[in-house]
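Hey, can you fold this?
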Amino acid sequence: MKYNKLGNTGVEVSEFSLGCWPFAGGSVWGHQENSDSIATVHAALDAGITTFDTAEGYNDDQHSEEVLGQALKDRRSEAVIATKLGGAHLAEGDVEATCDASLKRLGTDVIDLYQIHWPNHEVPIEETYRGLENLVTKGKVRALGVCNFATQDLTDLLAAGPIVTDQLPYSLLWRAIENAILPKCNENGIGIVCYSPLSQGLLTGRYANADEVPDGLSRSRLFKHDRSPLSQHTDAGAEDEVFAAISEVRKVADELGEPMASVALAWVRQQEGVATLLIGARNTEELGWNLPAADLALEDDVLARLTAATEPVKTYLAGNADMWNSDNRMR
């Protein structure tokens, strides 16, 4: 496992991070045993994954932050905790109380990377930044980041002060950030934290067609809007293009003799500006499926072939990097 430093903050993240949203269970992920989540955290640490991403909003059957806190009870010193505050709590007076609640759930006295989950254009970003900066001054937070910020929101934020990360959806099947957001981040030394690098399992090859994809996953804009009752968009989807691309990725993986997921993760890891990518694993077996990608380096011709294969999907997405809404929330 390799590690990347976040600016000059002293925070160092593993190239793979464990995404802890599944720990919450609920309608998106289904039933999840806390014992499986805790065992997965321990296995990740043993494999060299030090970074764990959660959020105050991951609160369904159980609270992801609480489960992660239980898992790290005796291993906190080995871990980098990244969590998020929601858009409803960005007023300066709410920021510290929200952070304190997360600290309590996590069972720690410091958050290594504190991120704004989504922009809230009803609250001036400079007001939110003052609240976040205060947390750093008090030693409650080590580094600041954002999630789902596109170019205009990044411009407004950087006028208030620096950040070190922007967490965004990025995968072979979700390359919309390449149009403008990724260059903006690279220009300003902002590391990309990639979520859904396997497009919620599509790039593992487990689904042969759109009909096999469960409702919680087929709600994204890759699928037609009436595919899932959980959909919040009006898009026609790009199902034919998606599964044609998956077929080509599978072909490349077979030629390399590597798991399809490993090839897809390696492609993301090798893109410029990527600090860490979130892998989702609900148990130690699923974690093990992802680990081989940590040592896989793809040659330039393979990278180019994979990029070309997924170009039609990128064209469909255009400049809207919002996975869930046709009315783009990323400004």
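Oh, and this one too while you're at it.
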Amino acid sequence: MGGPQLRLFHDRADAGRRLGARLAELGLAADDGPAPLVLGLPRGGVVVAAEVAAALGAELDVVVARKLAHPRQPELALGALCEEGDPLWDGDLLERVGVHPGDLRQVLAAERRELARRVSAYRGERPLALDAQRAVVLVDDGVATGATALAALRSLRRHGTGRLVVAAPVAAPDRLAPLAEEADEVVMLVAPQEFVAVGRWYEDFTQVSDAEVCGLLARSRSGA
């Protein structure tokens, strides 16, 4: 396989509309009960989540998680960190690459700082509106390693939620089982065997800015 036929989604907004329609079919729309809380993983996941929230008549917010990457291989996720709690490490991968969590103190410190900056920029002092009676839909623009989604799911479980759903337009098929162990439901539009990378499945995978994330959140809160 190769070429343009692999680009299943025009951009993140297109993917979000399609994902929102699928989630509505599963009974997550406000018309079917209390409106869920839709949480996007910044930055790209928030663009997808905004469309999902609109389709479901739901509140949009963010939960911030950061990948903990190998110092010399930035694309290799050795673990992840969410807003609260300890880092979630991939023990098998750490062993394979010969790295101990203690070797990653600088990486962890840097990612804690960036995580705190993003929480402040996107949500300020406002807490997440979590409720044991309310469904939560965690949304990303794609699942490659699943590290940040797993860290976020575990953090949300600690806080107490109702039905916990993780959703994305595209995922690596071998990442679905770990997600299913943490979430009540896993909803992916496609999980292609020839996954390679999330961006491969989008025509437009332009990097998302802080300003765009903040704008989407502000528009959602104002009802625009």
